Amino acid sequence: MSTDAIRKVCIVGASGKLGQYLVRQALDRGYEVVGVCRERSVPKLAAFADRITIVPGPTNDRDVVRKAVAGCDAVLSILVPWGVRQYSSGTAQAVLDFAEPGARLVFSCGWHISMDGEDRYSWRLRTTIRIVTPLARLVRAVDIDDQVEACGRIFASDRRWTVVRGSDLEEGESQGLPVWSRHVGDPVLASNLTRRVDFALFMTEALTDDSLIGQAPAIVGRLSPSARAHAKGAA
Ligand SMILES: NC(=O)c1ccc[n+]([C@@H]2O[C@H](COP(=O)([O-])OP(=O)(O)OC[C@H]3O[C@@H](n4cnc5c(N)ncnc54)[C@H](OP(=O)(O)O)[C@@H]3O)[C@@H](O)[C@H]2O)c1
């Protein structure tokens, strides 16, 4: 399927902050939208209720995902490491298994995911991950390793995927399409801050950017100091 043929998009995790930006941007582009979110979160999508189809249920429920992605040309998935019941890997696997052949698949995660082991992390990020991962698992709140597992499965698949790796996020008006690099540690990414709306923008734009297929871009705000310094250097 060609990316210019995208008409119908499924958003898995549509009720969250990132998900709601994705819903708005997909509707603005004229796509038909199917959103998946937990039953209790359906009211969060009230503003879009008459313009999208909502499939309520846990995003790692295979039947829910199978139903939601049917007939969709693309799937935007928010991978979140909640709980210790394979929430991320279950979501990713279901999308990989049931999305239409040739569908464009775009997933979100954080900088801590590495596709090729070539990322160079700051001491601060390494320490945070090292401390937070076992503690969060201990209290059964978050399983960061499961997000790593989810992305490993995506990287190994022959689907038309992109994994967008977000920096620290902030709210605020769009600054435009984020700048990206293949590896965390590259100077352009040093500011480590992106507007959440622009994280969504990068994912939405990726749907029609075939050069991002099979890539795991790490992004940073286009007006962040490191991105500006990089642009100035390039000029
Ligand atoms: N936050 C950051 O600083 C940051 C940094 C880098 C990358 N990212 C990435 O950005 C993406 C979005 O993260 P976000 O922090 O901005 O959050 P978000 O967009 O608000 O999304 C959170 C998602 O998690 C779901 N959720 C919350 N509690 C849950 C639970 N107990 N069980 C199951 N699902 C639950 C929410 O669904 P409901 O609406 O049903 O609650 C929502 O879909 C993720 O892929 C994350 O890895 C975030």
Automatic annotation (TrEMBL):
- What domain of life does the UniProt record list for this protein's source? Bacteria
A Pfam family cross-referenced in the UniProt record is NAD_binding_10
Molecular-function GO term, any one: riboflavin reductase (NADPH) activity
Record-linked InterPro entries = NAD(P)-bd_dom, NAD(P)-bd_dom_sf, Polyketide_Oxido-like
Q: Can you name this protein?
A: NAD(P)H-binding
Organism equals Prauserella marina
